[in-house]
Design brief:
This is Sugar ABC transporter substrate-binding protein. Pfam families: SBP_bac_1. InterPro entries: Bact_solute-bd_prot1, SBP. It comes from Pseudonocardia adelaidensis. With about 450 residues, this protein is an alpha+beta fold. The protein has helices spanning about 25-40, 50-60, 80-85, 90-95, 100, 110-115, 135-140, 160-170, 190-200, 225-240, 250-260, 270-275, 325-335, 335-345, 360-365, 370-380, 385, 395-410, 415-430, 445-455, and strands spanning about 15-20, 40-45, 70, 115, 120, 125-135, 170-175, 175, 205-210, 215-220, 265-270, 295, 310-315. It has a domain at about 1-130 and about 310-385: D-Maltodextrin-Binding Protein, domain 2 (3-Layer(aba) Sandwich), CATH 3.40.190. The strands form 4 sheets. Strands 1, 2, 3, 6, 11, 12 and 13 form a 7-stranded mixed sheet that branches. Strand 1, helix 1 (about 25-40) and strand 2 (about 40-45) form a beta-alpha-beta unit.
Amino acid sequence: MSGCGLRTGSSPDTLNVLSLGDPFFYAVQSLLPEFEAQTGIKVSLEGPDYDTLNARATNSFLTGQTDIDVISPDSMWLSRFAENEWLLDLTDLVRRDAAEVDVADFVPSTLYSLSEWRGGLYTLPVAAYTSAVLYRPSVFAALGLQPPPSVPDAGWTWDEYLRCVRAIDGTDVAGTRMHGTVVCGSGPQPVTHMYSQVAASKGARWFRRFPADTPWDFTPQFAGEQSVASLQFWKDLFACSPPEAINYLWFDAGTAFGAGNVGIFYHWTAYAYLVQRTEYMGEVESAVVDDYALGVLPVQPGQQQVGNIGGYAFGIGARSEKQEQAWTFIKWATSKETQRKMALLPMRQFADFARSSLYDDDELVAAYPYLPAQLAAMQQGDGKQVRPPVQNYTTLETQIGRELNRMLGSDVPARETADAIQRAAEQIMTDEQFVPFSGSSYADTQQAMQDRLVALSA
C-alpha cells in the first residue's frame, strides 16, 4: 500500500531521485553534498525496497505525475517504461555532451543489458552486476581441489563445479562442518535470478526468438531438455545447501557464505564485497573477509557462455520539469570520477563498475583485487538472453519463481516443474497477446549497440 500513495508535486528547488537501496545508493548518498556544492542543485534521494520502487514508479507515471525527475528502474522494467514513454530517450543528450559523457568508456554489454531498448538509450548505468563464482581458497587447498579459474576456461564446466560442491559438502575443514554451496530459494525474484544463470549457461531459453532474432516469437521454451537438465542441476545444488536456503533472499545467501561454512557459490558480483560484512552495509567483518576469492562462471560444453547482467541505471522521468538538472545529476553519478570516489569511500562497499577504464585503475584493483575476474565475467554478459526483458517480465517471473520454490520445498521432479512453468507461460503469453505476436520486431544485438556507441562518440 505504501507504493500506491500519490505525491502531489515536487519542490521547484529540489531534484527528486527515486532509486533502490542497493550499495550504490549509499555511496551516492555519501557524495551528494559534493554534488550539491558543485552545482547548486539540491537532491532528494529516496531508496525504497524493490517492490515499492516498482509500485511507486508505475503509479506516478500512469497518473501523469511530475514528481520523479530521476529514477533507477530495474533493467527488467526498462522495456515497459520505454514502451509507455515514461522515460526520456537520452540519445540526443549523450550526443550533445559526448566528450563529457564518454559513452565509449562503458562496457558495451552493460549498456546493452541495462539501458538500451529498440535502439533508444534510456538510462546510463550506475551499478552493473554480472554473475561470478566466489569460493574459499583455504577449503579448496585443504581438500586438494583445483580452484576455479579467474579467466574463461573450457575445462571449468558446470559438471566440475558440481563435483567440487559435492566434494566439500559434509566435510570438516579446520573444525567447521561445511556445506558444499548455497542458493537463493525464495521466490519470485531471488530464486529466478539465480536459477536463470544456470539455465542460460546450459543453453535453455525463455522464448523461440527474442531479442536478436527476428521476427520475434514469444512461444515459451521452458519444457525443453536443456531446461529439464538445468532444473535437475538446480535441485542437486540445493541438496548441498543449508536447508534454510529454501527461504533465502539475495543477501541471505551472501551472509551464509560469509559465515564461513560454505565452500563455493555463484552470485551477483556485488557479493564479492558484500560477503565481507556480517550485515548488509554493516561494519562488522565476516568470517571470510581474508579467505575468499572470485572466479569466472563455469561453462557447458557445446554451449556459448552467456552471463547474466543486471543492475541499475539512472534515467529521466519523461514528465519531469527539471530535465536539464536531472541530466546534470546523471552525468555526475555515472561519471568515471564519481564512480571512483564511490568505490574508495571508507566502507569499501561499491565496485559495480560499468566503465572499462575503472578496471585498469591500480588503486581500485588494490582495494578490490578481484576486478580483473569481474571484468572478464562482465565481457561475457548478456542480460537480455539470461532474463529476457519483455514487457510482462514481472508476471512471468512470479510464476517461474513460484514453481522453482515449490520444486525445492516439496521435491517436485524437474520434468514436472518444467511442464508446470511451460503451461503457465503459455497461458500468460497468450492472454497478454504476445502469442501470436503481431507487434513490430527489432534485431536487438550487441553489435548494433556497439555500432551506436561508435556513432555517439564521434
